[in-house]
Design goal:
It contains 19 helices and no strands. It is mainly α and about 325 residues long. The chain has one domain. Helix 2 crosses helix 16, helix 4 crosses helix 12 and helix 12 packs parallel to helix 15. The protein starts with a helix and ends in a 10-residue tail after the last helix. The N terminus is likely disordered.
Length: about 325
């Protein structure tokens, strides 16, 4: 994206953050104990915030080419990986009586997975929400060219009202888990996307550069207070309810955005190791389900098991990216 070409130092700091968040996601799913992921689940909020922060200029300028590129980038993996898993699982089970799910998956499950993003590959609830929110904000920005940011703020307020009144739970708890996980998360994840767009609209990072030390100090204090004390009312929800996650995500985003890399060797290393965060998210659960049957420390969901899953997923994405050359299939691994 053009935004990422403006300031290379800003880029590298955010790429480091993406690396941390990517491993955080893997650990969340494959490591039994994780204080940060259980106490304050910032990984998903920050990913959404970053995604829509960089999407703001695209919807502001109504750049149809970039809009189409974004939809291709987020929808192709959404369709391909569940379909690949469906076919691979059923072939292995029919031939060897062994597969990822140890049973044949019905076509109905594939259709539910593709419609809702949550069935046998449940982690794609996030991808479902990413696609839905991208579509929603794009449509609003096209039809309301001047006041679309204001309308986004209205949606944010509505989302928090639904969360804190528990109406979001009341509405979606009537349905099965697939609907709860995917559609029930829309009003929990929407505020993070809105804040990403808003931060870019206000150009907060550029304005805070004059007060970098002070901004980092206060952001660090706020994160400490969130982690150490219950300074916000904790509410019931699905996985990401409450305004404290948004505040914490904003503070972490600001800290990394204001960080400055000067060492060329470090930036080169970061450029190498921070690739493929999307691809790692897409496929890490595939390896986890297969390897936990054969490797005890992965089955026991140990920390070094999470590291192994991450490294194998990275290598797969690296090779997949190389073999895809310049085709659109690179998007499956990037």
């Amino acid at each position: 994206m053009n935004d990422r070409k403006i300031n290379k130092n800003f880029n590298y700091s955010l790429e480091l953050l993406r690396l941390i968040l990517s491993f955080w996601v893997v650990a969340r799913h494959t490591y039994r104990y994780s204080y940060l992921s259980d106490r304050c689940k910032f990984h998903v909020p920050i990913f959404l915030l970053i995604s829509f922060y960089f999407y703001y200029n695209t919807i502001k300028t109504k750049n149809i080419t970039k809009i189409n590129q974004r939809f291709l980038r987020i929808s192709l993996p959404y369709i391909f990986w569940p379909t690949f898993m469906f076919i691979n699982n059923n072939i292995l089970f029919k031939v060897f009586r062994f597969s990822q799910y140890n049973k044949l998956l019905e076509l109905k499950k594939l259709l539910l997975q593709l419609i809702l993003g949550s069935n046998y590959h449940y982690i794609f609830y996030f991808q479902f929400n990413l696609i839905f929110l991208t579509l929603l904000f794009t449509i609003i920005s096209i039809f309301f060219k001047i006041c679309f940011i204001f309308l986004f703020q209205i949606l944010l307020i509505v989302a928090y009202i639904l969360q804190y009144s528990y109406w979001n739970l009341y509405i979606f708890n009537k349905y099965n888990s697939d609907i709860q996980i995917s559609i029930g998360h829309i009003f929990e994840l929407l505020p993070f996307a809105v804040m990403g767009l808003t931060l870019r609209y206000l150009d907060i990072i550029a304005k805070l550069k004059k007060y970098k030390e002070l901004a980092n100090f206060y952001c660090t204090i706020i994160i400490f207070l969130i982690l150490k004390f219950n300074i916000f009312v904790r509410i019931k929800g699905y996985w990401f309810p409450g305004i404290f996650l948004n505040i914490g995500a904003i503070c972490i985003f600001i800290i990394f955005s204001l960080f400055h890399f000067q060492n060329i060797k470090i930036t080169f290393l970061l450029k190498l190791i921070t690739k493929f965060t999307g691809g790692i998210y897409y496929i890490h659960m595939i390896y986890f389900h297969f390897l936990k049957r054969k490797i005890l420390f992965i089955k026991n969901m140990t920390f070094h098991g999470s590291i192994v899953i991450y490294v194998i997923s990275y290598i797969t994405c690296y090779l997949g990216n190389k073999f895809s050359y310049k085709t659109k299939y690179k998007l499956l691994f990037n």
